[in-house]
Queue: 4 jobs
Job 1
Amino acid sequence: MKNIKLIEVPSEIGAGTRGASMGIDAVKIAALDFMSNFFIHFPSEKIETENSLLFEPIKSPFAKRIHGVLNLYERVSKSVCDSIKNNFFPVVLSGDHSNAGGTIAGIKMAKPKSKLGVIWIDAHADLHTPYTTPSGNMHGMPLSTAIDEDNMECKVHDVDEKTARLWDQLKMIGKIHPKVLPEDIVFISLRDFEKEEKFLIEKHGMKVITTSEVRRNGAENISRKVLRYLSDCSDIYVSFDVDSLDSAISKGTGTPVSNGLKEREAEDLISKFMQSRKVCCFEITEVNPTLDKENMMAEIAFNILQRSVNVLMMN
């Protein structure tokens, strides 16, 4: 039986819309509404945030609040690394998806020799860099930090020296880079990305599984296909951004996109992944209750969290 540890990262400095730092509390409220004592079952750790930066002027327009994001990477990576070394399975609940860069770093720091695969369930590719970003929001960049990519071929911005230096530190964190090979990333339900990200996906031959493919083939077949594709990897990290869900249900997130997964499809798929012994870390991110009605997004996220953890406990 796996020992689960919850790592709470209520940081939203990487997002463009405010409110994701409240996502974890919203999921806890959902648990209470379902009369579940899930959150008192497991040891948990809460990571200190840099959310006070949201009140300060932005110094790096192409990598907003990057110095704060670097601090989060350091804290999250240490927590994830320590958890894995102490034989815990880290379940990370984070505000915005920029935090996932720290999670990936922590897995690699704990298992430097491991070949790490990433299953990225998200409407977005999160493969921008300060040189290509249309928004400057760091939650669009975590996978580029993980694969150590600047994407200079598609450069749009001249980035100042300080930002460039901080960006390099983000990629080097844990003194291992790249942390993941691009071909060891699988995108699921990806449907909203820019041409600069498309360039990287094609350049590296990254695997993309569309919503319609999930719907056509079902969770069982897709999970088998993905795990077979990642069969060379010794460890797998699953990152679930709630905006992978269809915008009809995913109101409570900063960047909803139509033509996404249904709740049941996401839940079935993630539960199937959790049956694999290679999966060593799971993250749920981008719940924003300030944009939601009746806490629906958090309730869906809680259902997925609870079922996933149940599967882990049974393995």
Note: The CA atoms of residues 147 and 178 lie 5 Å apart.
Job 2
Amino acid sequence: MLIGLQKQWQILRTAAEKDKLPHAFLFSGPDKVGKKTLALNLVKFIFCQGEKEMEGFSCGKCRACIDVGKKAHPDLALIEPKDGSIKISQIRDLEWKLSLKPYSAKMKAGIIDDAHLMLPDAQNSLLKTLEEPRGKALLILISSDPQRLLKTVFSRVRTMKFFLAPDAEIKEKLASFESDFEKIEKITNLSLGRPGQAMEFLNDHEKFSAREKKLEEIEKIMKAKIPEKFKYAKEIADSPEIIEETLALWERRIREELILCKESSSCLVRPLRELEEALRLVKTTNASPKLILENLMLNFNI
């Protein structure tokens, strides 16, 4: 079950069946919404040697499907960051693998996870493959921050956008593994529309507890005085991931208040807009995260 990705899957499956897939894709969207899962499902579908399911997925049982699931198929090359970046040597190795004749599948496939972490020389090296692909191969770049890709790379791939999943679909998925409705509700709220995050919380109690503590921390800061808010801003300012997670949780919390307190909701509209603007600035500009947070703390009152 692909949570919130039915439209994307339908487009990809139809193109694959008609043998009209472009040679290079960019799967762009938030972390943990299923971009890599869908990329691997597409490769399985193309490589599958068994009878495909009625829903249009691969059989999941043949040798090819099993090997892709283990990321060990000889015709699949998966590139992931090492020490926080993707280096030119990794891209050259990928290019070499894609240039070889398929071993058992009808084509080669390459996936670059967190493609925005490619160093500039690695991206420039990839350009040749994007401009003049050798042999029959499919390349999928996956990124939650596509603005960091070179324009020359971005312009040579077909972009497919991914979005946060509806809560109802996440709850339905969790309910197939967990019977505690209260826990399902908590996990859904804390996952912020990210199915992959929801499954991590379900399977890793420590991560789930840590996110619950983060929410408690946010609840406390929402009611704190300015000096405490400034201290908190300083503590998290050096970590972009923590800032985005904190602001997203904060935004979710305010939206919940809006739903629950309709009669007094007008007082929450401005704080929500302040949070949305701060999150936008953190994600799309080079402005100082500390200054963004301090400005938010000054104007944020509920």
Note: The mean pLDDT is 90.
Job 3
Amino acid sequence: MAVIKLNDLRDNQGARHRPMIVGRGIGSGKGKTCGRGVKGQKARTGVSIGGFEGGQMPLSRRLPKRGFKTMFPRDYAELTVDRLQRALDDKRLNPAQPITEDVLRAAGVVGTSQDGVRLLGQGTLTAKLTLHVAGATAGALALVEKAGGTVTLLGPARKRHLKAKPDKADGAKEA
């Protein structure tokens, strides 16, 4: 076993990169302007131009705006009726037991999500099931009910796990 000495410790080969030395004469390759080109705003430090186009109306303001994007999108694990039927055929799910989000995840039918499982009506279903999911399309509900099953909609998981705020005491004044 080799003895390790502090004066023998070195970084791995290539772990340290020598920084470019600029402004040390024309012969160095990075002299005079130091690789910044010549003059002007961009040659100076601390410049952030962003979408500025020299006084012309920027492209981001010339194009029309339509619609909006919600700040709080729902994140569902999508489950089609067809994939549910395949899991039943492969004996990964027991149709006699209620099928919840945890059972679906344990069987490897759906992945993780913040808001739970949403059932989509794509495919056919032959088994009678009791499903407990966060959401379902109208077509999926119709397919499950046609097969003799029931679907319980729980709502998004993020809302289900929020704690209820305690009520204010009677007679407490609002500020």
Note: Strands lie at 77-80, 117-120, 130-133, 135-136, 150-153.
Job 4
Amino acid sequence: MKSGFVKYIFSVLLVSLSLHAISQKTSLKTKKQPNIILLLVDDLGWIDIGSYGSSFYETPNIDKLTKEGIKFTNAYSACNVCSPSRASILTGKYPARLHLTDWIEGYQKPFAKLLPPAWTMYLPLEETTIAEVLKKKNYATASIGKWHLGDDVKYYPEHQGFDLNIAGNYAGSPPTYFSPYRIPRLKNGDKGEYLTDRLTDEAIKFMDEKKNNPFFLYLPYYAVHTPIQAKEEYVQTFKSKINPSSPQQNPVYAAMIKSLDESVGRLLQYVKEKGIEDNTIIIFTSDNGGLIRSKNPITSNLPLREGKGTAYEGGVRVPLIVKWKGTIKENTQSDVPVIGTDLFPTLAALTNSNISSIGNIDGVNIAPLLSGSQTLKRDALYWHYPHYHSEGATPHTSIRNGDYKLIWFYETGKKELYNLKKDVGEQDNLIEKEPKIAAMLMKKIIAWKHETGAQEPQLNPQYDIKRVNQTAPHQRVVKDPLASKED
């Protein structure tokens, strides 16, 4: 608790000094509490945006957002799958500490070598979310979109600090992107209405109602997660653009991204037209890396290795863009490693919210980076995934310390070490060449796992080498009184 308090005080001093430095160059045009729009895209890869390097997908509005704010090139999700990442963004804590380490409800591999621990399939109500922090500062709060942090209604957004919950959970079967949606907390629109457009409509409606008060809009889009569905006219456009030599060439996925980009453009235009642009922080990021799939490929994360569900950079490196007109210098870039847990303490600091009583915050306030600093006081970043995933992941823990990343696989005990500055594609395993660095990173992992109370996978008494690849998702049980009703 004491170390957490000292960290918080230090962070507040840093942000105060950094924002004071900014104000010497660009006067702060308002002393109001800033509005916050947090856009969380589902499964959007690091390279799936024009400003991050894609030449196939069209993202002019997201690219505009990049030019008007700061782009992070070494941003990470807190997990290689969605639910843990979302929990970390909202609480500032690592999934390992929360014991929420897989997507809800995860996959079963009943004959694999290891069994996952008895992990938590919801965001506990005892945890403090950023929405709850901001409500104490008189913010209006809304969660509009995919929640995925507990199927029982008692764990829904309205019980986690949000005044408004729209489209929070889906019932049993996956939702569709065209109305009727199969989302109990979202009334169906006209037949053919597109889900991404609809969520943006709801977001604008919320902001319009609250624009004269500080608001926190958490907008976790269902896009661009499967099922891969898009507007047919956009699909045809991208079919004509396909380049067989390009690693990215799925026209339906590209069309989904185009709709997403249009929604971002609508939101940017709204805050500008309403005169609240100077007093609105806009954050754009993804919950994990892009989904590849060997059969029927969806996207490519090259030059990163692999994708969603794996321990490699393609599974955890994500885009992160932050805009605050008049406060954050436009068209800037930070190469400092940051992670989803950092958003909680950063937003708390930027809104002068006191979080000193909340223990064990793993995130670091990155406001100094928003003001141009190229350093951040942090030891390392960690990932812990004691599970299997259909995309090929096996239980592992990994660490990034400086330019080095070490992955420890539990099935075999194998360790891989990479210098990401020289080898972002993780092709040259340095484990034999750099034994001292590997030993140092292993020591850090062990200490971190102990400090966070990370759960361990266990040996499986039903292990059957002939059937290890058999997988099945858990049976989804949704406890929502609206789940059986048709809107």
Note: The radius of gyration is 21 Å.
